[in-house]
Fold each of these.
Amino acid sequence: MTTIEEANKLLQKECGVRDFFSCDSELLQIAEELNSTYAYVACESNAEYGDFQTNQKLANQVTEKLKNNGFSPQVVVEPTCGKGHFILSVLNTFAEVEKIFGIEIQKRHFWQAKFNVLDFYINNPDKKKPEIHIVNSNIFDYNYQTIKNSIGEKELLIIGNPPWVTNSELSAMDSKNLPQKSNFKQHKGLDAMTGKGNFDIAEYITIELLRNFGHNKGNMAFLVKNTVIKNIVYDIPRLKLPIANLKKQNIDAKKEFGVSVDAALFSCQLNQDTECYCQESNFYTSEIKCNFGWNNNKFMSVLSADNDIDGISPFVWRQGIKHDCSKVMELEYDGNSYCNKLGEHFSLEDKLVYPLLKSSDLKTTIANPTRKMTIVTQKFVGQDTSYIKQYPQTFEYLNNHIDLFQMRKSSIYKGKCNFSIFGIGDYSFKPYKIAISGLYKTFHFCLVKPQNNKPVMLDDTCYFIGFDTLEQAEYIWNLLNTDIVENLLKSISFSDAKRMITKDILMRIDLKKLAKIKGDKTCFWDNIEKCQKSQLSLFN
Ligand SMILES: C[S@@+](CC[C@H](N)C(=O)[O-])C[C@H]1O[C@@H](n2cnc3c(N)ncnc32)[C@H](O)[C@@H]1O
């Protein structure tokens, strides 16, 4: 019978992998199961692990590119190594490597990675064998100290393809595959609970590695979603990351991974004076597209474009109503009764029912009359909703569907009144609005007028500013639909983002400056400042 020490010694000699088996029982179990017909471990859920293994050809292309750029690492870290394709490419490409560390949470991949390395050396017995540590561990619990102790002055390469999954997707799956610091981006209040609190696990892992190894000599090269790269570049000044020579080389994720997302190879040099911009190019052709990132304290999607009106909006742009209960809250009216998305027909008092526009309704220059309606249960966030009793039909309808309201997953509704909504305030009831969709890849602003003497509401995929008079709205609407605004938006928005237009982007349009450029109507600003104090960001 072979002892574990003997087996491990032999395997280390053959393929460089340290501690191939951790205990006797593991060795026996593997031996038994290799002889049996069933798989060694059951498959864990791929979605939970953001599991998109890099094909060997792509991994080889990445390491070849790095080599051609003069990289020659001595220590390599693959933080979520999967089946080890990057480790194999490293073994094939870099002769100077002395140590490799691979970490992987899924046992089946962890074993596959070790056997892949063994297989590699069976086929390439004369290749140099570095010290290889493949560890079955959760990267969020992993202590980087062992790796740190190994690096010293050596050239480091952090390479890989961290999980493609977001914290909110994981929460929806009730998955525990999350870092403890779930608000690592340090957003406050509602931002932390909604859109802005959402982050890619890959972003967390990348930043953790840069925090831990940023001051080591070396490089990082990760395949990640474009949003992850954008967010990292955005956070460089805040996190004071010591990185430079940032590159984003776009890949075809559909071809490589069979998924329709925008992704790229992100690479950077560690231990440098911080650079806050990134060069974007094509991974396959090396054709350069642009530089994006920070310029004069402004974050731009295209750095070359300077724009005079990039400043602060004098108005507060608002997101439309958020209720997360469209089955009950989105209604149509056929002239006789209301109908909801559950196919139910019913009557309601008019009082709380308002016309509703969604992103798809904003394609026209002036919004068309809408057949969609919504129930506005609160006039401001947090309003006590018990007053709805005075509208018995509305109250009964909402109560009949209280279970659907209570099933809303987002934590913003926890502990709030029944039928609570967000994105509501005085501004929602302004009669004239200028709106834009956050979802569509256009820079076109739509004028929204009241319908049946009621202000029109927008859903939470839209952003808007509201006005008391048509004259005011038309004046601003004309300013917004000009080339200069379109150019600004093009240079500060990312076309591959889920929401190309966001409140942050709209808040950068300095309309007062634009008005000056276009031949100011000073009286307009005087009037509007008098009558719309609540609208102006100055007063918010
Ligand atoms: C996108 S795949 C890439 C795998 C490998 N890096 C490659 O390029 O082929 C992400 C890998 O991360 C692993 N993973 C997910 N969550 C992890 C965690 N918390 N700790 C370590 N590995 C994890 C998955 O099991 C999967 O193998």
Amino acid sequence: MTEPRLVYKSGEFVPESEATVSIFDTALMYGDMVFEMTRSYNQAPYRLRDHLERLYAGIKILEIDCGLTIDEMEAATLDTIDINRDRMPEGIDYQIMHNVSGGPMALYSSVFPKGIKPTITINVWPLTWHIAPYGPKYESGIHCVVTAQQSVPARLIDPKIKNRSRIYYQMANILARKVDPDAYALLTDEDGYITEGTGNNFYIVKDGTIFTPEGRNILRGVTRAAVLDLSAELGIPCVEKNIEMYDVHTADEAFISSTSMFILPVTKFNDLPVGDGAVGPTVKRLISAFSGTVGVDIVAQAHEYAALANAD
Ligand SMILES: Cc1ncc(COP(=O)(O)O)c(C=O)c1O
């Protein structure tokens, strides 16, 4: 019997069931919690430092005094992975989740006789269930729909800070599911340009060039940076520019990216086929090259994890 997993919580390790956030925490009071989601390939964290740098940009801007330097956060992350290695299924990749807020507000300090600390959690979680649904989607592609819920402009709530005030992303998911229960929502900005998905970045391919929205009103994904790096390596031009819905309708291919999936092809957009409606050569090339880089066949892994999830 495997021991239950442990969560790093503000300096100590506690069981997952005790890794709670107080109702007096600024995370709930103001929604000013910042977070990260990193994943492993072959059980080694992928671009952990990039995720931590984005986390620390949010920490700086929100003036959260978390009490750990980025190096200490990295060390605490590696400790959390190590302590949980035997507590996770062998050979399975995992996610690493960071959550940081200022902790309970000083006004409520009498509730905490041992003193108030910033809230920092680091936890790991096997990726089996996250990745299981992706297998068929790498092959068929997904349906993306633009809903009435738009992105909040960066001047109001900056999406570049990966934060937990995510009600507008959730609203877009709710509206997308009304169109098609399997659809992924896409948001637009005030001018109608596509910004991002509710947990992913967006791209189209036209005449051999990849286009992705500028980094203005979006979360600048770590995977987005990986896609830009990989396309440069493969000699595929990649341009950041405003993308209108018309551009998607007239594109050859489209895809989304995020940490857990790397990329997923988008073969249907607002109920119309993208290109010829099949997964295109650029997406296939990126998936195959990325699988080579990380040493994991990501499509095979998704199928393998689906079989494991079904056996559970
Ligand atoms: C709104 C949003 N955009 C984009 C992304 C993709 O970011 P990353 O590639 O760092 O996972 C995410 C990831 O959670 C997200 O929540």
